Amino acid sequence: MNRKGIIIVVSGFSGAGKGTIMKALTAKYDQYALSISATTRDPRPGEQNGREYFFVSNEEFEKLIAEDGLIEHAGYVNHYYGTPRKFVEDKLKAGIDVILEIEIQGALQVKKQYPEAVLLFVMPPSAAELEKRLRGRGTESDEVIRQRLSRAVEESVGIENYDYIVINDILDDAVERVHGIITAAHGAPERNADFIAEIRDELEKL
Amino acid sequence: MNRKGIIIVVSGFSGAGKGTIMKALTAKYDQYALSISATTRDPRPGEQNGREYFFVSNEEFEKLIAEDGLIEHAGYVNHYYGTPRKFVEDKLKAGIDVILEIEIQGALQVKKQYPEAVLLFVMPPSAAELEKRLRGRGTESDEVIRQRLSRAVEESVGIENYDYIVINDILDDAVERVHGIITAAHGAPERNADFIAEIRDELEKL
Question: A149 contacts in B (CB within 8 Å)?
């Protein structure tokens, strides 16, 4: 069977653990690649071009937009962030499922262009657990935590646009559920039209 | 989270192994129940009322139809077959996923009444493999095998109505793929509206 990759869009509340799930998923299974975003912000210490981000100038970014070289992009705190199309399409062609960790505006831009993309929204098991995780980091002020929590309320309005919610209770279970969702998606008839046609032809010849 | 059961409809080519997959699935996981059909045909030796089928008279069957007591039904070789609604709805309420092994006409009747039902179509890895399995049974004449194969061609026309195809290559893998599909389905936002509303409320109170 000729397997083509799927785009998986992952959003979720800050602190729900989407990054951790995706890191564990890509470490466990070869079939996934994390998309690398382009950004105009400066690299932070330890960040490498082409690993965390593709670091580009404003001019380069605007050229990418003009050439339709980005699947989605958004401005955030004075900088651009976007998903380079070429990286994603090369992976899909090679049969690799590509994971995009982006917010809802980007998610909807992707779904418009790639209706067969699978949209996941990662949630904590409860609001109290989310607060606990945010406080547990110990790195953020009370005010920042409040901001993140009230931002979560805003984000929760868009959940209905997603195909699946993933509750991050136990990390390994959440990883397996995400893997199950994507494996299931590969079984949609529209993704297997060639296989279905082929088996029909073969049956008729028997 | 208040988990409600899901209806899973399973169809597939004769010989593709759908019965074997479903038996292995229900043996492995507690969350599934196989729906038991009502039929007007006589029990065969070894069959028990309420285990393989509910064996009913023509009058009883027609009463079930008249009372809307069947989710779907069909006539086949002079006898009625149908899925009693009560059994299915009791299981769903108890949080059990109910598996219906039925053909495409029945599958479409179910989808109409329960749009959130998940429709699976089990296929062999190839037409040659299907023929091999049918011949391997050693119980059927060449003519019956030919009939089954040409029937498979007809059935393959309806595959596009299903949500997922499941290729039965290695039994354990197929069982896990089916389990993954159903687990994924439980994560649809419309099935988790209460949970989403609850977490939103909690977040607003924090």
Answer: 203, 206
Partners of B167 in the β-ladder: B123
Residue A45 to chain B, least CA–CA distance (Å) = 34
Topology at the third CATH level for domain B7-35+97-205 = Rossmann fold (3.40.50)
Pick the CATH number of A7-205 from 3.60.20.30, 3.30.450.150, 3.40.50.300, 3.90.1070.10: 3.40.50.300
- Spell out the per-residue pLDDT of chain B, length 206, in tens: 457 999 999 999 888 999 999 999 999 999 999 999 999 999 999 999 999 999 999 999 999 999 999 999 998 878 999 999 999 999 999 999 999 999 999 999 999 999 999 999 999 999 999 999 888 877 788 888 888 888 888 888 889 999 999 999 999 999 999 999 999 999 999 999 999 999 999 988 88
Q: Where are the domains of chain B?
A: 7-35+97-205
The Cα angle at residue B147 between residues B142 and B152, in degrees rounded to 5: 125
Which residues touch B44 (CB under 8 Å, ≥6 apart)? none
User: What is the rounded CA–CA span in Å between residue B186 and residue A161?
Assistant: 16
Interface of B with A (CB under 8 A): 1, 121, 123-124, 126-128, 130-131, 149-150, 152-153, 156, 159-160, 162-167, 177, 179-181, 183-185, 187-190, 192, 195-196, 199-200, 202-206
Q: Report the predicted TM-score, pTM, of the whole model to 2 decimal places.
A: 0.85
CA distances for A128 relative to A40, A140, B28, angstroms: 35, 17, 34
